[in-house]
Amino acid sequence: MTDAYLIGSSCTRFGKQPGASFKDLTRQAYLAMLADAGLDDGGAIDNAWFGNCGMGSWGQRNIRGQVCFTPLVREGLFPERVPMINVEGGCATASMALHGAWKDVLSGTAALSLAIGVEKIFVPDSVADAAARTQEIFDGGTLFMDTYAMQAAWHMRHHGTSAAQIAAGASKNHAMGALNPLAQYRFALSPAQVLADRMVSTPLTRAMCAPIGDGAAAALVCSAAFLRGLPPAVQARALRISANVLTGGKYRRLDEPGLSHLAAQRAYAMAGLQPGDIDLAEVHDATSFCEIYQAEMLGFCPVGQGGAYFASGATALGGERPINLSGGLVSKGHPVGATGLSMIFELALQLRGEAGARQHARARVGLAENGGGVMGFDEAACAVTILERA
Fold this sequence. Notes:
Order of helices and strands: EHEHEHEHHHHEEEHHEHEHHHHEE
Strand content: 15-25%
Low-confidence stretches: 127-141
């Protein structure tokens, strides 16, 4: 298989950004990504994948990427006539964009392909209308939280997982978010404070649930041949995409493994790795219970022992396998169409040794798990990506 490399990544600040438009967020992520890749412009980009979920609710239901990139084309920062494929897949949208860029390179149809995810939900001049539109996007407001709460309750009953263990995971992530300058929530919470917060859907409190905000993230994927033509400093920071797998959901029983389990198994096989080879991970903690569950599905601990695994400190900074050093969705934030690529950005920082106070000392192989949509007790889509230092 032809190798594909990540040479540039970026992420904007996540949160309520009343003064930033879709085009503004696109510009921020795109230009920061070019700078990270050491490129003055995107003239060598062959293909582009634009991920977004909410733009249609504000009137632009089609050609979203073309609209957002038009100013950049006019300014000569993005090449003319480049195909822009628009992607929408719930919370897995940005990961689907990355999957497209990765396939571009593997197929040989592109030497350099862009993946970008952009989301804006908060509109300050009509807060009530924004709330209504947010509810429309998520098919009823608390549907996701209620589904996750039922999964958590089943897990607690059958495996003995406790609310205190879920709270420990949430507290860990809020501590990491406090160290992340791009996070939506930059404050620490003790496990007791997490448990005492307002109940959203039993057993999940507000501090255990991801907030929705605005933001964008991007990644630039290239072939081995293209990489060899870049300056040594850029080559030194390149990361190999060892695996990139998408799976689809189904209406499963609660005692069946989720679709992330299958995605992870396929990703490990593609990369020639085992769960024990993963140094750190970013997982889709739409709630803090999800982080426990995904640790089990990814093979980091036996099924049913995720709560104890988190309570042991194994997933904290300094632990055997840190998870969500970005702060995770519950602290970093969850601008739906950008989330998956924000995970890639955090892994890139870690694998390059550029994460500052959040830096994991043993970061060579990183995994990102990003789910989207709901089908009964399963997600509708899941992406698992493995990155390695080249």
